Predict the 3D structure of the following.
Amino acid sequence: MSDGYYGRPIVKPPAWTDLIPTYFFAGGLAGTAATLAFAERTARNDRLARTMIFGAAAGCAVSAFCLIADLKKPERFINMLRVVKPTSPMSVGVYIFSAFSGSVFIAAGSEVTGIARPAGRFFEAIAGLIGPVMSVYTAVLVGDTVMPAWHLPRKTLPGLFAATSAASAGAWGLLFAPSRDSGSARRLALVGGTAMVALLQALHHEIGAVQAQAYSKGEAGALARSARLLNIGGIVCAALAKNSNALSKIAGALLLAGGLTERFAVYRAGCASAKDPKYVLESQKANSASSPV
Amino acid sequence: MSDFIDLTSAAAESATYGADERDRMGFFTDTTLCIGCKACEVACKEWNQLPADGYEFTGESYDNTKELSGNTWRHVAFVEQMEPERDTGRWLMESDVCKHCTHAGCLDVCPTGAIIRTEFGTVVIQDDICNGCGYCVVACPFGVIGEKQEDHTMGKCTLCYDRLKVGEQPACAKACPTESIQYGVVDELRGRAEKRLEKVQHKFEGAQLYLNDRNDGIGGGGSIFLLLDKPQVYGLPPNPIVPTKNLSQRWRTAGIAAGALLGAVVLCAVARR
């Protein structure tokens, strides 16, 4: 008699749709894009700042759509705002996202219309400061679940989300700003892209060989391998792209695609680690052996 | 219990009812008495007016219910442990239900406050508040919660909150013909479970209590079980842990990552030319 009950899952995989990994991508990009916009504004590179605050606004618009459309009762989205719950990363996240996207929309609106410039700049700064939290909090949100592939990489998952966000935001700058203005975006794409590839390896190491199979097998594995190819291609192009508009655009497109694919790889890994009970059983065996609960 | 400082718990949450607070109520499911009649499943469906699951035939012993879900709040598991010749063996049956955890992951993560701790210390989803975000589904260490397809909110056992309110026992316990499902004050049920284990453990190889330990990863269950084999044999997690444990540590790590991200952006911006 083997362990387990007819091979059925012990925990339920998410009832979410693909809008959720899409949100992780768009929200992560928006967060870091706003931070780069603020940094570039401060450094008086208005051209790139403008591109980046528009990128943040686009990311926020996609995020808001994804978050609400994924609810099974979207008309009750407002119920999220009736409580503040520190024990719920989604509750905390709703307020982070609301403050962030509100600031971004004011800043981007002011940038487009020229109305209320000082207020626009002020909210651009606020968005820039909230940005990194916006980019990373989703790692806490998925970490605070019983999906082994999300719950176990406590140390590396936030870093992976930060790196993916940096690569995506940098890629946005490469894609939509002229290469003579997008130096900072190029550097950010290089740093983020490299860190993303490295941290996924570190994540495998953190959770161990058995648990890492959720990331390396099946659909998640195929996505992860595609993401790796896209990202490495993007990093190489970005490294060579100084002063080349064409190469910048190719690098930006590759890294954006790589970031999105990476988000889906992580999402599918979480689902896979719920569907096969071996992941839950293995993680709980390790618990009882080493650390009493 | 310092590991749980982040967390709210059954006692703290029920205490907010003040004078209306009641004894913590729960189930003791004694699988040595279960005959697999599924009266609990039917009574639950009837009382709570839950739609049927259809007529799928699984071939997995007598279990065509498969799992707990949004519309299935009792599930009888059937485990056949036969010798290869199938002439001798054991047939294990267990009526599974929401554990009404002391540290409830679903309640912790619910962003709308739809999931509450009642004055009976039980965990209930208010379906007029739930917006179907689905976070509770992935926060339950037991895979109890699912979507109710017809009204798109999340569903699970309420321990018949409406019946408790008027002094009745839950429908499943009332319908159980063998007292395999016993309803009562959780502290008393714990004692009853220990006595029962003492009595039967020499007769049943592998008899063990499940979720009766207040120091386990969920702070003990409001539903406790006497099982005849390891929990995973019944599809239960052997060592469940509320996901919210160590949440503040997760935020700290995320804070470091966010700080590093901010630093990286600033460095990339100042490194120009």
